[in-house]
Amino acid sequence: MGVKFGATVRKRYGKVYRTLKQKRRCPSCTSLKFRRISIGIWQCGKCEYKVAAGAYDINLGKLQL
């Protein structure tokens, strides 16, 4: 993102991106292979546990912009 978007927008984008890409533990098997497969759908690569949650984070109230 270039200069034309402004500092506030770039900071928000960085925070959302870091939250989206962090390592997560599966609630079922506790492996670190829990990831987002599409907007609001999260799946474990090891045990195939699937859950619907937030778009950028599993805990909806955790991300504050």
Distance between the termini: 18 Å
Question: At the first level of CATH, what is the class?
Answer: Mainly Beta
Q: Which topology does CATH recognise?
A: N-terminal domain of TfIIb
State the shape.
Answer: elongated
Identify low-pLDDT runs: none
How many helical stretches? 1
Order of helices and strands: HEEE
Q: Give the tally of β-strands.
A: 3
Q: What does the model show?
A:
With 65 residues, the chain is an alpha+beta fold. The chain has a single domain, classed as N-terminal domain of TfIIb (Single Sheet). The protein is 23% helix and 18% strand. The chain has 1 helix and 3 strands. The protein has a 3-stranded antiparallel β-sheet, with no helix packed on it. It is elongated, with a radius of gyration of 14 Å. 6% of the residues are buried. The model has no long low-confidence stretch (mean pLDDT 85). This is 50S ribosomal protein L37Ae. One of its GO terms (biological process) is translation. Keywords: Ribonucleoprotein, Ribosomal protein, RNA-binding. Belongs to the eukaryotic ribosomal protein eL43 family.
